[in-house]
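Please predict the structure of the following assembly.
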Amino acid sequence: MTHYRPRFSRTERTLHWANAVGFFFLLATGLALYLPSLAVLIGRRQLIQLVHFYAGIAWIAVLATIVLLGDRRGILRTARELDEFDRDDLRWLIGRRPAPQGRFNAGQKLNSLLTAAFALLFLVSGLLLWFGERNTRYRFVSTVLLHDGLMYISLVLLAGHLYLAVIHPATRHSLRGITLGTVSDEWAARHHPKWTLE
Amino acid sequence: MTDIHAEPIAPRARRFGRGVFLGTVLTGVSSLYWGANVWSRVSSALAPLENAVPLIPTGGWRIYTISGSMPHFDPTTWRLEVGGEVAEPLSLDYHDLRSLPRVNQVSTFHCVTGWTVKNVHWGGVRIADVLALARPNAGAHALEFVSAEVPYIDYLTLEQSRLHDVMLAYEMDGVPLPREHGAPVRLVIPDMYGYKNVKWLKGINLVPVPKSGYWEQLGYDENAWVGHSNGYGI
């Protein structure tokens, strides 16, 4: 009989999936604005721009609301976990083994930190694009570059994330953690031994 | 129920996470000031590779439109009407346009929102060759460029329209001007931002003075010199 242990709280899972849905929606509407072939096919640039802009605002607002209405203390403790890198985490990052990992391995910590920073940068550059079109005070030569660059880097991170979460046999059990909330004790002990020690 | 946070914090743990987060945010925000410069150098260095394998799927272009759908070019009905303060109003069809003396040029296209496409190969006609047929009156000092994308319109002074690399382009990078770039013909004025480079041209009117074009009515500069207008370089 397999034993399962909770890995991600309801607040964490809601946050993750709200982020994912928002990202894909913004990616789709963003690409319709960005790729000439799609622009020809779809047209209606003003409308898509409007939808993209307000979806971006809603995305950030929803994430903030989930944190505020959810398990705030839990999220704070999670933030602290993501902040702390011990010697094993640093060894893990440069490929030294053994490097026993906690609930998040060092790569997951980096991915979470970058994803959060990117969300903020997407918001800032998106607001500057929107208001820069209306007022030269908010116009920078590099805003478009920043917004696009974030998109490209995010796609690389997302590809790695999806590979590890859905395809790679050794790690894809973690998908259970972010959907149902629990992972098997045996898998947890193998991949996140420091977390299961307690 | 097990507490998901039960993991003890290792005694020698360092708070690197906030550094990664803040460092990324600061790098991103500061790139508003250095991004374009650095990218221009990187893309020049990557140019040989980019020629072999297109790295950016768009070729660097972004397609901006102001209406619900792009104008459709029908060679049998399309006309370029040249009128206003002229002695000889013209109605050129596509064949007439292509029969005028052809010029080629390679120039850089700058958008006011910050993106740039280098080395665009244009083929088309000089405005002077069209005006030689229409013969502007003495009172004409500006040109009104009317797009088939209603209500897009913009203006140049006669003097600006005589700059050496201003043209009416019907070819881009060796092919007839694609629909999204303003088929069948667009204005090209490389020294000014893209919004002056009116796409889907259907009319040119000679007028006494330039007025405010579509974007200028929304606050953009009438003289859209690259690097010296719209809040840049001033």
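The mean pLDDT of chain A is 94. Residues 106-132 of chain A form the longest helix (27 residues).
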